[in-house]
Structure prediction request, 117 residues.
Amino acid sequence: MKLDYTKLNSIAQTGQNVVPVVVQDAISKDVLILAYVNEVALEHTQRTGYATFWSTSRNELWEKGKTSGNRLKMVDIWVNCEDNSLLFLVELEGEGACHVKDESGHYFKSCYHRSFL
Prediction:
């Protein structure tokens, strides 16, 4: 397993002002994904009721589940004590929040499906 230590540098080079968002299942409390929002993505999330992020790899608005059907319905939004990150509490609509599929062709529920230790 090779960690991408350059991710934050590449995000900074896009010129987008973003904050990280931890996305957590509101019922199970499983952490599903880590993503980023800018003001446009956060406003879109609040307006539609579904998690929308800023894609740091494509440098565009990313409506989670628009193509896969694995949408994240918003339950609540929390902000940390330093006003520099968010926590989205969501209900998963679909098979899984991860874009990677398991060996049987199903999406993983969470992007955190592998142990590092």
Q: What stands out?
A: The longest helix spans residues 39-48.
